[in-house]
Amino acid sequence: MTRKSCMRRKNLQNKPSEELVLPEKNDEVVLLQEEISLLKSELSLARQKLTVWNDIAEEGLFIHENFIIKEVNHGLVKLTGYSKEELVGKHGKVLITEESYENLKKHLSKDKSELFEVEMITKNGDSVIVNTKGKTIKVGNQIQRAVIVQNINEYKKAQKSIEESEERHRLISSLLSDYVYTCKIRPNEAPAIAWVSGAMEKISGYLPEEIEKLDDGWFSIIHPEDVQQVAESVNYNYSEHKFYSNQYRIIDKSGQIRWLQDKSICLNLDESTKELTLLGATKDISIRKKIEQDLQRRNIEFEQLNKNLKKANHALSGANRQLIESEKKYKNLIDNTLIGVGISIGEKILFANQSLLDIYGVKTFEQLASRKLTEYMPIDSKKMIKERLKKYRKNIPQENIFRHKILRSDGEIRTVQIVTNEIIFEGKKCRQALITDITTQQQTENALLQAANIFKNIQIGLLIYRLDDLDDDRSLRMIATNPTSSLLIGLSEEQMVGKKIDEIFPNLRKNKIPQQYAEVVRTQIPVAFDDIYYEDDRVIPAFFSVKVFPLPDQSVGISFENVSAKRKAERDLRTRNHELNNFVYKVSHDIRAPLSSIKGLINLSKLEKNYTNHLPKIEERVDHLDGFIRDILSHSRNLNTAVIIEKIKLEQVVKDWFNKLEDIDISKQISKEISITGVDFYNDKTRLSEIIRNLISNAIKYHDVAKNDRFIKVLGKVTKRSAKIIFDDNGIGIKTEFIKDIFKMFYRATEEAEGSGIGLYIVQQALEKVNGKVSVTSKFKIGTTFTIEIPNLASEKSTLI
């Protein structure tokens, strides 16, 4: 505004309204109109700033005209639960109870501006007690009222609680505080408690005798900042024989600070020793002090709010002086910022700084503005932006920060982040956008997301430790783990992350594993371990193949996988190869030996006239060879055929095998006892039959010829879960040192009877196939007992495994 226009305005204002004469020259009218337009713009900007300030205030603020709400700030929206749109235009009584509304009308009729308490109702129906203070303001030609709302709900609850507590203890507190005491005070000595009654221990945490043991008695627990005050007050009252009253803080036995109000009166003064006897009463006023402090803080905040309002009004009055300077600073900032700044109305671009031209790949603003905003976007982004523009026109709230893709003039697609807000530009309501090219950032985020997905879903365990102290391998702390690690180890993420390695896996240290992890951090050289066994009760027992590699920030990565199955397979393979070698040797030997015997007997028969004498021996060799081949075939079937579950009559199977084995001469001379009871039994009949055949056959073969009362007992019990069968005999028995080897292939513990040495091996292998187990007890020359336990698979009958 020019000095000339200011003088002209002043002259016009000094003239009486009836003498006001409009300028005759058209250029002066135009000048006045420009000034009025400028003042309107300045006023609009000032209102915007005031609105922003009001929106960030913690207390609620609203403006109403005859109780019709015209404007609200964010604080009121937060307090009531209503949105701004739900409040503006509504009658103010929707926010308060009917009673409060009537009281408020009476209060306003007296034109008072001091604090007034009302009961407010939030959107969800909750009741909130608030303090309000209003001030009448003039907006244009309209008289309105600005009201500040302060939530005092918690204070009222505390006040009510105190009032109830004080009511309950009114009679006692009028005569007796929290505790009453007498003490004696001598010059330059701490008070000595003579007698105390009440809640001294509850308040201070100390018993009187504990106070006496402290170096300075009661002064030992007075807050250091209050000791001087209390001492001076005691000395003053002692010398003047006055009534003593003081408020001070103590530190109780638990370390908490408490406020006390102490009152005492002199009972006796010994003139000779100057010993003063006091009767006192002490009250815990910690809660009251807290409430007083909270009220004081609230009052300070409220006073500060009033000051801020005054400052805001002052700022509005100075808006004219700062407007031009602010515009210059803003333009300079916009021109030099690295962030793209653009202003548009609808799809028309009105302004762009150099950074925005660079983002879109154009040289001049005219080139950028020659096309619509959405013409710089691929199809998917174009649809999204048009939808946002439609919502802007309808004043539908939406997020001010979003991302989309742009199509540069050179055809390259880039990802940008937009921060948008509404402004007045050249007298029109427009959208300002702050645009940042985040293509590289987006690529990085995608890479990090991909890495995170790999880390989360990879089917090997991954652990990350950080060596907090490079010189201390005990400072290894786990900072991350993936889900597979928990499955492999058996510990949850919460049991591992954030803890030291010795806390998680204490037994790794004896194998120097943490030390080697720390060395990888220091040297940045990766290492690998074929087998690590976590010898901890909480960890799943297993062998792990581990690779250790360095990471940034003093960290080390551990990748591992469970190789227990692999190691077991390797051990089983070695065992099977060993058995195969023995098998080939044994088969070739045990087949060739009977054949050689048969061949020799045939040749001998050719030389003798009565060759039939050799036929029984030939038949015996053939039978031996047939039995061996049958055992080999049984072993092969056990290895290669599926488990077929069917109903088995166990007792009948045992009887059938005893009948089939009666051709062994000695079998008829052995007494048999068979008894298997219980429920129906289901399992693999073929395998179970072979198990029973071998155990009965062994019992018969290895009978004791020296005994007359030879017996074989087969006793069993079948339940819904399993069958337990005991094979008991009084044969030659097995020496203790041989028992551990009897289930090995081709092992024979005695030469007293012929056998292939594969029978018990077949028993054990067949039981493993049907999830059964076998145990044996034996005494040499006494007898042997085999016990087998096999699961009853009734629920899986007729099923192939």
Please give a structural write-up:
This protein folds into six domains: 3-43, no CATH class; 57-149, Beta-Lactamase; 159-284, 2-Layer Sandwich (Beta-Lactamase), CATH 3.30.450.20; 337-443, Beta-Lactamase, CATH 3.30.450; 458-562, PAS domain (Beta-Lactamase, 2-Layer Sandwich), CATH 3.30.450; 641-796, Heat Shock Protein 90 (2-Layer Sandwich), CATH 3.30.565. The protein is built from 25 helices and 27 strands. The strands form six sheets. A five-stranded antiparallel sheet has the order 2-1-5-4-3. The protein has a five-stranded antiparallel sheet with strand order 7-6-10-9-8. A hairpin with a 5-residue loop joins strand 13 and strand 14 (413-425). Mean pLDDT is 78; it is low at 1-23 and 169-177.
Provide a brief overview of the structure.
The chain is of the alpha+beta class and 801 residues long. The two termini are 99 Å apart.
